[in-house]
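dude i think i finally got it to work??
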Amino acid sequence: MVMDKKIEKKRMPLWQMGLVSIFVVGGIWFAYRLLADASIRTYRVPAEQLIISSVQFGAFEDLIPIRGTIQPFNSVFLDAVNGGAVEEVFVEEGSFVEAGQALLQLSNTNLRLSAAQNDTNITEQLNLLNNITDGFETTRLSTQRQIIDTEYRITVLERQESRQETLVADGLVSEEQFTAITDELGYQKKVLANHLARQELEIRTRETRLLQIADQIAKLEENLEVSQSSYESLLVRAPIAGQLTSLPVEIGESKQAGQRLGQIDVIDQYKVVAQIDEFYVSRVAAGQSTRFTLSGKEHFATVLKVYPEITAGTFEVDLIFEGASPENVRRGQTLQMELTLGNPIESLLLPLGGFIQDTGGNWVFVIDESGEYAVRHDISVGRRNNRYVEVRDGLNQGDRVITSSYSQMEDMERIQLSQ
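look at this
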């Protein structure tokens, strides 16, 4: 009987097993990459559509671009003190005027009648106060005359008393006559004392009342000047010498009290008025310097005043030219300027781009070493100027960053760069 022979199965060579293992691990790794990539929000965009900049180390110039408008250093606005109709215009808009020169005449019948009535009333009150003052003087003179008469009477009686005192002793004058003179002398002395006391009282009263009357007269005269000036204000005069840059009035046109009539500019000195983003409101101060180019020449200006009020996201500053004003500047002309906020400091710099508006400088897309992807990185930035933003944390020198706008990829975690 023939027995079956056991056939032994051949084992796979080691090199084949290693090869299979490599293929299996590679497949697993590839599948993992596919699944991982699918879970990451990725935006694909051609590299030529992006702006890619490198982080560099250099001197950061702490300056910002500003846009200013040339305006006269001093301007005076003409407003209607009292309303009225434009009766006559004496000068044309754009003319040069002198201080006190008549510019236009307004007419207001009601104001004219009111001023005349006020003048009459005030004049009557002034006359009444003057009459009271004259009455005090008359009383003073009357009292003084009574004192003089009484003193004279006393002198005469004293002489008579002295003479008759001897005659009474000789029996030439009766005792009754002598007594009458003595009594009259005593009476006149009492009258004199009364006059002197009344005079003292009148002096005190008169001094007090005269001070009050003087104050009343001063106020009435001030009111009279106001009344007269209110009427005289209908003739509008130039308060300063300069150029009448604005006079928007027409004959017959009615102007209300407080309404703007025109503007006079002093043209021998100019200033620059600039609007600056509110982001820099805490860093702009008087004394900081700006530079600009005009007609091929570089000029400088200094911040004179900073207005803290913020309107529509900006605040206003006044600047004055250093040295003489540039030639051929005109009111309303626009200048592109650079305002220096501080001294240059060595630091990491990232070129400014559209990304700063989209991220606020809180994160950027950094390109990896392969150059195929850009990954989102959180960063911290500091100051910025018109060219660079200062990098404080999150980037290193030489890093390549997408600095163009992120408007289409703000929600992405990775950017795939295609050729």
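Residues 40-61+345-418 form a domain with the conserved putative lor/sdh protein from methanococcus maripaludis s2 fold fold (CATH 2.40.420.20).
im so relieved honestly
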